[in-house]
Write the structure tokens for this entry.
Amino acid sequence: MRNSDMKSLWLLVVLVMSVLVLEHGHKMVGAEDCEEEIRGFTIECMYYMSNDSQSLVNPNARCCKVITDAYPTLSCWCNSLSRKVVFPPGASVGETLNWRRIMHCFSYCNVPLPAGYQCWKFTVPAHPPRKALP
């Protein structure tokens, strides 16, 4: 293939991808805030909520900010927990979380999950754990 043909092909690929991104972005305008919340939980809170450990760790201020900002639209985050993750293979986001640790983080950040609240496959028990750590 000649150099000019390669340039034309790449320009076509870039054009098609740009159109697809713009179309996708146009349809997803309403979900952008939710995606931001999901990224926030993943970046700032995963350490405190993952099932890597059973110990309760108090979240830092950045995680608490994500939690309090996302709390009014928490159902959006809960609905995202069925998304698949790369590791472990075949697992979902929700399966990588420890619900006891999640409840601790929300309580520590002064926005406890209400008893009976349904999030993904988990229902908050009648008596969520109190703050266990100083």
Q: What stands out?
A: The beta strands are 118-119, 122-123.
